[in-house]
Specification:
Layout lengths: L1 H13 L5 E5 L18 E6 L8 E5 L7 E3 L20 E8 L1 H6 L4 E2 L1 H11 L7 E5 L9 H4 L12 E2 L1 H10 L3 E4 L13 H7 L5 E4 L12 E6 L8 E3 L1 E7 L2
Parallel strand pairs: 5-7, 6-8, 7-9, 9-10
Antiparallel strand pairs: 1-13, 2-3, 4-10, 4-12, 5-11, 11-13
Helix pairs in contact: 3-5, 5-6
């Protein structure tokens, strides 16, 4: 999709005539970051410490899908594109933000519905091919505890909103290149088989971003997202620095 994404990005940047501001969508990753239940916490070990003629360096061990992170298609599709193989043009793209905070507040495992996509497009225009679609669920403000953010420390009792299968299929048909969310996963907490990951998006080459923050600082349309995922050979994903250019006007 590189030609499509390049054209979409160029059109978005051309609209930044009044300048732009940057919004950091990346949470700090540390030993206390709320992770998928059962995932190992980040560990850092000093290998070289400051001293005469020395520098400070550490070795760290992290789960590939820790904190604000990228999911490559290979995450759920054997032989799919890995983190090193995603084209750069597909990592700097216009971003569409759909707000489902009201629905999620009433129903913790709420999933984006086709009607939500249709309502968004009625107000903002058709979602353009080459875009990424990010959900604002309000969940980024719940990271004070595992119980609030994940719903439970028990992987069988998770509660958080995400994308629905039918709505994700519509977005694939629109030609989007990636999905993002400010929760633990693209699939809701009560979907242990991960049907969006497995059957809709990764199989069609889409990437994901999970555990985003500050999504509520982005407009519905007009911003450009930048995904700084390391080029890890064979990587199913990796913690990433994600930010957005937002037009000042």
């Amino acid at each position: 999709m590189s030609d499509i994404t390049t054209a979409a990005r160029d059109a978005a940047f051309a609209a930044f005539t009044g300048g732009f501001r940057l919004v950091d969508l990346t949470d700090v990753l540390g030993p206390d970051t709320v992770l998928w239940p059962g995932a190992p916490a980040l560990e850092a070990t000093d290998i070289i410490t400051h001293g005469p003629g020395a520098y400070h360096a550490r070795v760290f061990t992290t789960f590939e899908h820790a904190g604000t992170h990228f999911d490559a298609p290979e995450h759920f599709v054997p032989g799919g594109v890995d983190a090193a193989g995603v084209p750069l043009d597909d990592l700097v793209v216009p971003v569409v933000v759909i707000d489902i905070t009201e629905q999620a507040a009433a129903t913790p495992n709420y999933t984006l519905q086709v009607a939500d996509v249709e309502a968004f497009e009625a107000a903002n225009g058709t979602i353009a091919a080459g875009s990424a679609v990010v959900l604002n669920t309000g969940w980024a403000h719940k990271k004070d505890s595992v119980e609030n953010y994940a719903g439970s420390a028990d992987p069988d009792q998770l509660k958080f909103p995400a994308f629905g299968v039918e709505a994700a299929q519509v977005l694939v048909e629109r030609g989007v290149v990636g999905l993002g969310v400010d929760t633990l996963g693209i699939d809701p907490g009560n979907e242990p088989t991960h049907p969006v990951h497995r059957n809709v998006t990764h199989i069609n080459g889409l990437w994901h971003l999970e555990n985003l923050i500050n999504v509520d600082q982005l407009p519905p349309t007009g911003a450009v997202i930048v995904v700084g995922v390391p080029r890890i050979a064979g990587g199913t994903g990796f913690p990433s620095r994600v930010f957005a250019f937002v037009p000042k006007n």
